[in-house]
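Teaching note: in complex prediction, the entire set of molecules is handled at once rather than each chain in isolation. The prompt given to students was simply: 'Predict the structure of this complex.' The entities are:
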Amino acid sequence: MSPAILLSAFYASLVLCALGLAWRASAWFRLRIGPDARDITWSQRVAAVFRGAASALFGSRILRLLAALLLDVLLLRRLFAREKLRWTGHLLVVVGFMLLLLMHALAPLVSAKLFPGYQPTLDPYFFLRDLFGAMILAGLALLLSGRRADFPQRRGLIDWAFVTLLVAVVVTGFLFAGYKIASPRAFYRMTEQFIGSTDPVKLEPLRAVWASEFGVAFGDLKQPIDPDLMEQGRKMQRDACASCHSKPASAFVSYPVARALAPVERSLDAGRADVWLLYLHVFACFLGLASLPFTRFFHVVAAPVSLLVDAAAQDRAFSSAGRVAQRALALDACVHCGICDSRCSVAPVARYLNNAYLLPSYKLGATGALARGRLPRDEADPAAEGAFLCTDCGRCTSSCPVGLDLADLWQAGRGDLAAAGFPAPAQWVQARSALAWAESLEADSAQHPLVDADAAFAPLSAERRTFSRCVQCQTCTNVCPVVAHSIDAEHGVDLTPQKVMNLLRLGLRDLTLGSRMVWDCASCYQCQENCPQGIRVADIMLELRALSVHRLGAVRGQREPS
Amino acid sequence: MKYALFLGCKSSGHLPAYELSARAVLGHLGVTLIDLEFDCCGYPARDVSRDAFVVAAARNLALAERAGLDLLTLSSCCFGTLRHAIRFLGEDAALRARVAQALAAQGLAWSGKSAVEHLLQVLARDVGFDVIAAAVRAPSAGLRVAAQYGCHALRPSDVTGLDNPMAPTVFETLLSLTGATPVDWPRRLDCCGDPLHQANAALSERMTRAKIADALESGAEAICSACAHCHLRFDAVQVDSSDPPIRTLLYTQLLGLAMGLPAKSLGL
Amino acid sequence: MSSARQDSCDVAVIGAGMAGMAAALFAAERGLKCIQVGNSGGLLFASGLLDLLGVQPVAEGRLWQSPFEALAALAREEPLHPLARVDARSIRSAFDSFVAALGGSGLHYAPLGERNRKVLTSIGTIKTTYGVPRSMIAGADLLDARPPCLLLDFRGLREFSAAQIAATLGERWPGLRHRQIEFPGGEALPELYGAHLARALESAETRARAIALVKPLLGDAHAVGFPAVLGLARSGDVHAAFEAGLGVPVFEIPTMPTSVPGLRLLRALEGLMSARGVHRHHQAGARALTFDADGATATLELEGISTGSGGERVFARAVVLATGRFSGRGLSADRAGVRESLLGLPVQQPASRAAWHQRDFLDPSGHAINRAGLRVDDAWRPLDAGGTPAWPRLHAVGSILAHQDWMRSKCGAGLAIATAWAAIDQVTRELRGTAAG
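The expected output is the structure of the full assembly:
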């Protein structure tokens, strides 16, 4: 195989990878998340990052950084604290991969320099290579077998492709190693180089040993093998081969593969598997290298950066430019482990409403998509609902193994959603007056006959007897703090509680749904406590609120009837 | 006295001192607190769906029932919400059926056995004023405190059952046991404004500021809240404010200090 | 606390209007353990004025300067009237006690005496009453001399117009000026509500601004009249501050219900209940009342006023029924007749429905239906169909009683407070008697 092709392919992948990394990292300086990002330029972010890096590296915090590097980035301390199984899987994959890379892929640069007399076919390297490959597969298996979630992590096609590629790298590696162990062609190549012969008769003793103890599938050996021949062969082995070859049984995966391949070994040899299997293996590696930045596994770069940034900044005291950059970084640093989702306080609500966007990982995705201008309308509505039902409990933030400042992201996301036309219901209801909303509802009901599911949804307000006793004494209004503090008509309530009750009495519920009062109610229950007739004013108000999201939401996209 | 501690969304993340001081104080007074995998009480979900809020609340109730415990809430808001869910479940059979189905899918069930109690109730009724008085070693020298119950602890009284909703005294009694002097302030039962801070920030702020001004005018040196939301609200509105400031205290911290517990164990 | 499922007491008071509150107050003051059930919302309709007896007889519309002389006339002319069955000394003690308790709760009344007072109302009429809040008394004092006065109202505060009051009084008070001012902070609002204004005036800053607005308008006014919004919890302080700031007497004018003085009364009474250890069930009403066989204990089953759910029980040695009339649902009426809601006690009422009302709504003699109600014996015990007390220690007080028309007699508060006092007197004797015996 031509080294020139290999080398150029390698450099090409490297360049692609570097360009990809640079392009992805540039997003940290370009992507605008949060209303406060509007006024920050990319150069301000770059400056903030440099300042931050400089003060971290050349200050007293360098020790914290180093500790974070060791404990958080290399040893994944935070992940260990939260999910040990996942930590085990992840460590297996990362350590297996790094060691395989260093010891096997970069053997001429690393192993050969560190260990004089290194040969890949020599123990312990023979064993270790298989071990590292097996670690990767075992780790992947652990990671993929993780907990069942109601709303699974969203994996893109390219992410699955990358994982498949990784598996392919390891599997082709095992296949190639197994093939080579069993390959007569490889044997003869070696004997030609080191003994100067490829004559099967002359090499019979050696062939006997290599067939029985080294797994080569000659297929033309006379059976049974004479013990004296074996003895002779062992001597030849010691003289010519032993310095570079250990018994392959220690390659606990490749050796069984070799045994399994024995029946088809000669056709593989004839088909020049030594070339195409190698190409397969190596190009899979190159493809992986080139494509890494374009998958979510870019987190191998972004996550350590995020962890180091988190360690360097005390209590997340970023400058405004730094904070904005950190948000974009977070989108890439997220490893999609789903731990945040499993800790989310409103997960039961997400399940019941069947809206995944209440969960942090989905919110993160939506925040990123929105910032990139790629959030479709049918996702924006549930995303807005999720954003505004979040209780800011902070459990996602404290449980994130990569140290993302999710709380800040949610704040920013809400602002972005509002600016994009998806504010909280309390805000979008204000877009029209209560009367205009009622007219929209009426226009809509003309097209869609009204099926009053409201009775189950909002039972109190659907039951006339609830407020038929209202005598309009205005006590509810008089004790309402929201009416008391409404300082002007524009920012205050349009309908007082007593007026809402009156409209309900008159059967004009639709007129109440778009009212400010319904959303400005503080649920302090003074009205309900003081009502001389025992009317559940506040309960009704809150029912109307949920009903308004439901009914007005349905006509929100329609134009106001003129 | 054993309770499942219901922290609520605010205490754990934003006000760890409340949890810390509550555990310290209640532990000293002989109340055992068990931690279960509680989630949000459901309060914000009520804005969009009554069913969703009741399901969320019922899940917490079912968890406590499975452990054979009643719940103790630190936040008046969670207290009111959970109790409201119990009431709705009691009066609406169709809702009960829907909720039972949702819970069953999680392997849970609630049959009305676990009750929800507020910190103030547990202190006043379960522990008792005498025991608390006896535990006080270092009473504060007459610190003038305005007591903030939190709306959802008091109203509607057929749900909360905590003292006279128009003239409650239990919190003031508990405060005086620590050596503090409770002040009477006209706006003491008013809403702090926190529920509105997202929907109408300007209005919410006016409500909070009016309360603070009223407390100061009534001679209070500090506002002591029995609700994490109220406490955080009073703090938040005073950040970067030029209005005269007022201290904010948690009752568990005040009591802990009076009991002679180390300040660090109370989050101070 | 009211989370108990069962509770026991000496006396259970059913009803939290004026009569129920008075009964609970008097019971607690006598050391009786009292549990009170009911929504106190009816108090919100009070004006703050405490009528004792203003008109007797109703058909003539004759007003009395002395309520006690009116009571004497009542005793002669309508011996069945509840107020005729309480002796004058008890009535005085009842009022003194009630007003003193309110004063202790921060709601001060002008000293009670022998005379009724005349008070200006928000529609410009003049009302006869007995107990006047201190914040209103200056107006009553001026009503005879009628010196130059300034009446104010706030733009946006509904159902109160200084101009209308002045117009109604017309030539009878020539020195009465009226002005409308903006409420500080309410300038941009189309509508204002009394309770909010009252609360706002408890802030020194708002008060100062209001006083500053009024001061230049004083002129030669001997006093200034305001709608009754001068404070809610601290009405005494607010009123005093206005007087100090303006340098002249200030008087409140009672407004339409629901009024701030009604809210003050409610808060003060609830505060008294709390302070005196009366256990309140606010959102509960009585579902059923049964008496055990040996006559010692009554069992009151409660239900939620709004939900109808219940399960709580109160065991009491005595019961006071203060459930009021139709709006409080102590009595209920349909085409067939009037019923007493809780126990189905026989209700004294006109023989047929046709006799309920006079043809003229404003007929001076009033309507017979308003005099319907429970008959009681001298121990204030409602009578069953056979004419004997329904239960040895069940008492009825307040407007549920028959033979009175409190709105036309101007005796609402008197009826409530006096009968409550008398009934609790009776209960105390009964319970002490049984305890000793």
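Point out the following to students. The radius of gyration of chain B is 18 Å. Residues 138-258 of chain B form a domain with the Rossmann fold fold (CATH 3.40.50.11810).
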